[in-house]
Amino acid sequence: MIDHQDIGLAYAVLQAEVEPLLFLARDTGLQKEALVSTERLIKRSERERIAAIMAKDERQANNRLGLTAVVRALECELQMYISLKEDRPDQAWTKLIDAQDAVSAAVRASPDFTNLPAKFQHLRKMETWFFPPQVFMSAGLIVRKQRCSICQDDYNQCDHVAGRPYMGRFCTIELRQASPDHISFVEAPADRRCRITSFSDTGGTRNRMTWVLTPGAQERGSGEAIIATSVPEMDAADPAEVA
Fold first, then answer.
1. What pLDDT, on the 0 to 100 scale, is given for residue 145?
2. Would the CA dihedral through 189, 191, 193, 198 be positive or negative?
3. Which of 33, 149, 198, 228 is disulfide-compatible with 172, CB 3.0–4.6 A?
4. 3-state secondary structure of 78
5. Are 60 and 99 in the same domain?
6. 119: CB partners within 8 A, 6+ apart
7. Together in a domain, 124 and 147
8. Structural Rg of the chain based on CA atoms
9. Per-residue pLDDT tens for 200-214?
10. What span, in angstroms and rounded, lies between the C-alpha atoms of 14 and 197?
11. Rounded to the nearest 5 degrees, what angle is found at the Cα of 39, between the Cα atoms of 89 and 210?
12. Residues 140 and 119 in one domain
């Protein structure tokens, strides 16, 4: 039998340990030590999620799905601060978006985590507190066939809804036949990891995040960008919009 109170207490203890460290000025060594605790609870939550699935206890399975996500949000926020202090701002940005997605996932997973939208908005504000303005990208696709991750049927023919939890798993759309159509500059991308990372400048290539210029001959107007990522069972939806 899964002991809900026991893991709930474990999360409360972890939260009390981690939250004082969620500041840029906190000691990096302490933040890295806290990552050991977050990983330990994530593994435990995942074991209990699988046990609940095997017991066909959907409420418990979805709760553990949400718990895993909310602990991962703490973990990613810690990793963001560490990356910033170690001069890895591009990685820090990715960890910030990962944290946002994890909070959104927790809210969608279970009604036990409906108190998190304020945390999501706090994480969104960090985009302007710690990072320069970003230029976002969006890739358009022509989709000919897509499959539901829950029932493996054609998504257009099944009753599952992408982003919702079903017995401890989120429904996602698996693209089976798709081809690129266009790439656009957008202000509000579906995935905030998709952005211009560098561009050609006089004398070389300039990183948009650090502003460091790497010398070398570059074709005018060239650059590098992230136009698509693979983030299983996560999306960047605002949890306040989740029904």
1. 84
2. negative
3. 149
4. helix
5. yes
6. 73, 103
7. no
8. 20
9. 888 899 999 999 999
10. 35
11. 0
12. no
Judgement on whether residues 104 and 153 belong to the same structural domain of the protein: no
Statement: residue 70 has pLDDT above 70: yes
CA distances in angstroms from 156 to 21, 175, 179, 234, listed in the order given: 45, 12, 18, 20
Neighbours of 189 (CB within 10 A): 18
The tens digit of pLDDT for each residue in 9-51 reads 999 999 999 999 999 999 999 999 999 999 999 999 999 999 9
Provide the token pair at 206.
Answer: 């300039």
Burial of 95 by CB count in 10 Å (0-12 exposed, 13-18 middle, 19+ buried)?
buried
CB-side neighbour CA atoms (13 Å) of 33 = 7
Domain boundary among 129, 151, 166: 129
Q: Last residue of a domain, which of 104, 129, 154?
A: 129
User: What is the pLDDT averaged over residues 155-176?
Assistant: 92
Long-range contacts of 84-93 (CB under 8 A, 24+ apart): 84/24, 84/130, 85/24, 85/28, 86/28, 87/210, 89/131, 89/209, 89/210, 90/197, 90/207, 90/209, 90/210, 92/130, 92/131, 93/131, 93/134, 93/193, 93/209
Q: Which domain holds residue 210?
A: 136-232
Number of domains in the chain: 2
SS3 44: helix
The answer on 121 and 140 residing in a single domain is: no
Task: Please give the structure tokens belonging to residue 70.
Answer: 């909310």
Tell me the C-alpha distance between 127 and 107, whole Å: 21
